[in-house]
Amino acid sequence: MELARSVLAAQPFSALLGAEVVSFGDGVAELRLPIRDELRQQHGLVHGGVLDYLVDNAVTFAAGSVLGADIVTASLAVDYLRPARDGELRARAWVVHRSRSQAVVRCDVACDGDLCVTGSGRVSLRPTSG
Amino acid sequence: MELARSVLAAQPFSALLGAEVVSFGDGVAELRLPIRDELRQQHGLVHGGVLDYLVDNAVTFAAGSVLGADIVTASLAVDYLRPARDGELRARAWVVHRSRSQAVVRCDVACDGDLCVTGSGRVSLRPTSG
Amino acid sequence: MELARSVLAAQPFSALLGAEVVSFGDGVAELRLPIRDELRQQHGLVHGGVLDYLVDNAVTFAAGSVLGADIVTASLAVDYLRPARDGELRARAWVVHRSRSQAVVRCDVACDGDLCVTGSGRVSLRPTSG
Amino acid sequence: MELARSVLAAQPFSALLGAEVVSFGDGVAELRLPIRDELRQQHGLVHGGVLDYLVDNAVTFAAGSVLGADIVTASLAVDYLRPARDGELRARAWVVHRSRSQAVVRCDVACDGDLCVTGSGRVSLRPTSG
């Protein structure tokens, strides 16, 4: 958990958005992000890119909890379910399968408890090369 | 093009990141985003969420150029190819198929000319309801 | 359940492969498919296309259980986790979100109890038009 | 091209469906599949699983043309654009990026010249292990 907090704190983009780690370990990671006006699009809703960021980061953290820190995210798939307006976003990701070198992770993002995005991603150990 | 610029200017999240419209119209949209330190992750690379944002926004703009402004993005799939470090990101999206109510769009993101992300998305007219 | 069985029986491609409905209703569908040599690729493993078929059909059936029969599958994302060799494939799909006109569905495919594929899909009511 | 033909001929599932290699090499692969009644769903359209199979196989062949034969497909994303009814399906896949161990590939499937499915996939060298 301390590791996850220090990694998130070392990500300038996560600081710019204002994300925090809620839980981390054993193949699961949860992030929270309070909605504020800078995160919106032209209709006042949370920008899709903010939701994508949460899926991306929660998936990578959940994978990192089983594969270690030296990983790269290979692919991501996201389905938008309903718009997010106000309150707090929570992204919860969990590993559904892992091998020695890869993890496949699912993720749900809710806004004040209402599911607004589902996604999944594949994360690999970074290739060892010069 | 003026429409696209005004929509992007009306997105607080796009202003926070610093994106600009390069071209827009006839099923194609191109965005640019200069890399700066606030957009990085813990290893100094551009955060995946920034790349996701570019895919999301470029896909939605390209779809909007044929479907109009009243649209919602339904799903997104992203493959990360190589890390982005310095210089300028360019996201180019083009509609590969459209019906009356939907568009499917592909997108490439390059960093100083090197392809670093490919993706695609599906965009729908907003359902007409109260 | 009778409805699901009759739909599957009316699909020549499902008959060609040999799929059966195990359960159906309330946003959930489960299909089974005994592995036989005609379903393999050149290394003797089950062909990826067979697994794709199972995800596609289970996702569509689960969506149909809440949206009705007049639907089209819009998109699918599949992650392959481990090869399938022998025994029986089971695909279980469940709706994670639905609106009046759409459902987003997750799906797991296991081979003799070992998870070998995860996926998700988006299914829409067929547009009403001439 | 001879290699691709012999691999396809060694896939019992491809023989069951009736696919043929049209072209192969330098990061590109094209397959054809004549539509016949066994490939349909309950409304007389080509079953989605047939289209998924074509994307899967064309993506894997295109990747194999640059990575060699010892590969596994990691993930696939498919968007359905319009139904396929009669005539001949053609799946064309092309590598958009490759590293030493991976390739990312896009694919279009057309039915008698009309684009009906777009997709993409990620293919990896098989991990070297006992």
Task: Walk me through this protein's architecture.
The structure is a homotetramer of 130-residue chains. The model of chain A has no long low-confidence stretch (mean pLDDT 95). Chain A has a 6-stranded antiparallel beta sheet, with helices on one face. Chain A has helices spanning 2-9, 12-17, 48-67; strands at residues 20-25, 28-34, 71-80, 88-98, 102-111, 114-125. Chain A contains 3 helices and 6 strands. Chain A has one domain: Roll (Thiol Ester Dehydrase, Chain A), CATH 3.10.129.10.
Number of strands of chain A: 6
- Oligomerization status of the protein chains: homotetramer
CATH domain class of chain A: Alpha Beta
Note the beta-strand portion of chain A.
35-45%
Number of helices in the DSSP assignment of chain A: 3
| CATH homologous superfamily designation of chain A | Hotdog Thioesterase
Assigned CATH architecture of chain A: Roll
Order of helices and strands of chain A: HHEEHEEEE
**Unreliable residue stretches of chain A:** none
Count structural domains of chain A.
1
Global geometry of chain A: globular
- Here the CATH topology of chain A equals Thiol Ester Dehydrase, Chain A
